[in-house]
Structure formats: structure tokens, C-alpha cells
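Continuing from the previous page of notes. For each protein in this section, the sequence appears first, followed by its C-alpha cells. Read the first protein now.
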Amino acid sequence: MPMTEAPTTPPTSTPIGDPVEAIVRAAESALTVRRRYQFFVWTQSYLSRLIPHQLAVCGSYDRASRELLFDVFNSVSLDPALMDALGDARSLLMQHWQARWLEARGRPAVIETADLAFTSLAPVRDALQAAHFHTVLVHGVSRPQRPQEIESFFVFASQDGPTLAALSSRLELLIPHIHGAWQRVQAVERDVGLPGAPQAPVVRAAGVTLREREILGWLREGKSNQQIAEELGISALTVKNHVQKILRKLGAANRAQAVAQAMSLQLLDRPATPPPRPRLLP
């Protein structure tokens, strides 16, 4: 299947107070999403305009394993233990959030992270609150007439919890498009490995240097070249050159694609251990 262009950022002229046009554009652009990096770009542009978030957890039912498989898209750094819990369908955290959604009878559910009262959930609750995620918004899609059989499940978290909590009606309108786009990504990426299917370029992590991984981490947090330069004590031009090299190495057209590729290669999850210093001879 030929690759389609990733959706572009919506025009800033769309009034945020009147989201009707933005919802229509988000629905139309969702139809172009075929790959994981395109989905990430779509969530960071069209969807984030309507449902502002820094964390999206997306799950789809896998017939082979007979359970939901989750992917985590985050634009801020998160505790590794929290990342593990978010990506594990069998974790108590994800099971609890799914149960809360089912209790809401399939409607969007606003959940306070402070309500994670189980002792075993204390570490992930503390990690969520340390990231300033005090509220999450969850929604999904179940099989017709079988509400307990979840086809897809989504969690959105924002550091502006009150604003997110007020957007459940928008999520209700958008969930068919989010579900459709994510299901399409799963189907296309399964088919990529079949004989005769066009293969995506192979991207290898080996060529990405320690400094480039460090910069990718700042890109994930949305920092500009100047802000990254100030963090690293180098010039903005040097950062720009690093970013261009990162884009080439990861086969990405823009920063969002590069971050999505880095996440799929787990470049941002591995400890950035500097190379050992040479030993001085006596």
C-alpha cells in the first residue's frame, strides 16, 4: 500500500471557541492516517487542537493474543515504571481505567488520578501526579451488543486537567474517527510484512548518536532549537544541524515524525549512558 503524506498542522485561523470546523477537519484528515508516525502527527496537530493533551495511550484488540495491545504517545518525559504500566494491558492501572469506563456505560469517563487508592498503584499514581497529570479522560469502542468486549481504548492526559475534563463531549464526537484511524494503522502495519506488500524503509537505531538521542528527548517535550541550545550550552545553529541529521537518519519529514520513529525504536526509553572515559596511563 503506498505511503500517504502525514497530515499537516491545521491553520491557526480556526477559532478555538467554535470547534465545529476543527472537528470536520480532524475527521477528514483522520482518513489519511495509515502509519503509526502519521497517527502521532495527527494527534499532535488536529486532535490536540480539540483535545489538548501531552499523553495519549491507544489500545486495539489483537485477535492473536486475545487482548488489547497498547501504544504510548507522550510529549513529556515519564517515569519508566509508569510507561511500563501504561503499555501493559494486564497492569492494574489499565485494568482499573477500563473498568471505570465500563461503569460509565461506554461514555467518556473523567478520572482523577488521586482516586488510584490501591496500595500497589501508589507508584504510578505518584508518577502521574509528578508529571502534573491530575485528571485523565478515557473512552473507547466496544463490540455491538457486547459492551464488555472492548475493540479499542484510549486514555488522554493533560497538565491542564480542568480543561481536559470539560471536553468529554468533544471526545464523544471524535471517538469514531480516532478508533477508525487507529484500527487502520494496525491493519496497514500488519500488512506491511506480508509477501508482495511494499516495505517501508528500514530505520536502524545504531546510527543515532548519544547527543542526537538527547536532542530527541528535548524535541519530544516540544522545545525549540533555542531552548535546546540553552539546555545543552551549545548554539542554536548546532542544534539545527543535529536536528537535520536526525531527520535524515530516521527517514522523517519533520520533528513529530522523528520523535514517533524514535519512540518506535525505543531510543527514548534506553538510558543515555555516555561512553566510558579513556583511562590515563600512569
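Done with the first. The second protein uses the same format. Note its length before scrolling.
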Amino acid sequence: MNPSLNLPGWTHVKSGKVRDLYAPTELATHDGRDTVLIVASDRISAFDHVLPTPIPNKGKILTAMTLWWFEQLGDVTPNHFISTDVPEAVEGRAMITERLEMVPVECVVRGYITGSALSEYRKTGAVCGIELPDGLKDSDRLPEPIFTPAAKAEMGEHDENITFDRAEQMVGRDVARALRGTSIALYRRAREIAADRGIILADTKFEFGRRMQPGESGLVLGDEILTPDSSRFWDESEYVPGRPQPSLDKQYIRDWLTSDESGWDRVSQPPELPTHVVEKTKERYVRAYERLTGRTWED
């Protein structure tokens, strides 16, 4: 998806790793709130790099999953979604949302230990300052979900894992506690929903913002939620603790990028993805969508 695409009524403002943001060319509000258009492209990122090869229709899958999750979790916390009445050129991959002042803390919740959290645990016995029981193995379920925040970085930079104390210093005690409480509540509900469909939600991340209007308070859930880009999904029928799990997310791409086949040093420009990696990644995204929503995906 080309961020310079001419969309009637909208002007391109900025692009992130995956999404493009547009502002209305004329002041447009919804119930007195400023609006923005968020377009999910087919770009995919890994190890803080945007890869040169898109995953066909990934943006549409992410948007459909996010909208479905907003429906499931709307009673837990408010979100920024307003409408899917978007320009035809981005239909299916875009939504009109409320404009928020985003909180500069990425809210990661982990119910299982794997990936970077496992590496940190093996070195220190803790994750983001949270002490964990001895003897945990790869993919073990944690006694309770943990909140492991990160400081958001600019595109191309690595998000920095931080302690809760550091999060409090960044956004204030009350906001940090609200972020933690709401994130864990969302994770718990989503984990139950996924489990009913035979899927383990190992970990996920949320982003929140504040409303721009004077006198407004409270946090609003923004960005995408609970997609294969922002979460680890495992098939419960294949789950075996003590080893990495087959996943329904972009872990397949991460694994290929760190393999001898890719030859990538994680510093230079990433290589093009071979056809089989693109196809298998798309297949995993579709499976995650269909298993969770119970709907059939049609490109």
C-alpha cells in the first residue's frame, strides 16, 4: 500500500512500520471528537526492520481481526474505533478512528515465557524486574500473567523493555497502574476467548491513548489488537512445554530470517522473502483469523 495514495477527503500525515495515518483535509469530527484514518498496509516488520516483501492482503486480515476483537472486548475498556466508511481504494484495510494522544508505553502482557522474556529470565531470573519462579522452561505457562512494559522507539529503533517503576516515572503512577490493570484484564478475557477456540494466547501487546478534548480523562485502547503481528498464538493441540511452539503468527518469518538460508546479519537491509515464506506466513495469518472468529477468510 502506497502511503502517498490519493484518498478523497484525506491527507497522508505519517507512516509507521505497517500502518499509514491520514488526517481529514477538512476538519471532521464524530460526536465532537477529531478523527483520523488508519490504513493497514501489507508491509511486515521483524527485528525492528520493515521487510522488502509484503504479505498479500495482510493489512485486510489485521483490520478484520482488530475489528472482531474490539467487538469482543468493548465492555472491558473503550477503544478508538468509529467507522469503516472509508475511501474505496482502502476498503477492508482501513478504519476511521478517534484521534488520541498516544501514551509512550507499549503494554506487553505475557502469560507464557518464551522469546526475549525467556532470554532475560535465564540471565537474571526476572523479566522487566519481575521475579519469576526457578526452573521455568521455554513456553511454560506463568503462574499469573505479567505486565512487561516497553518504551516505544522511533521506526528503525528497538523498543526498550523497562521496569514498572520506569513506566511510572514516564507517565505517572496512576496512569501506569491503569495501563497495567487494563492490559492484564484485556489479556485474561482474550486468553479465555482464544482457549475456547483451541488457541493459546502466549503474549500480546496493547497501546493506549488519551482523548484530546478538555475535561476528558481515562485511557482509550488504540492501534491494532490481538493480531498475528502483535501477539503469539499457539495451537493448543500441538503445545508441548520445554521447546519453541509452532505458531500462528509472524514467528515463521523471524525463524527464517535467523536461519542460514537467509544469510541476514540483522544489521544490513533485510533480504527479500522467498515465495514459500510469504505463502506460509499468509497461511498462518488466515488460520489465526478463521480459528478465532469462526469466519471463512476470502481475499
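What the second structure shows: The mean pLDDT is 92. The longest helix spans residues 173-196. We return to this in next week's lecture.
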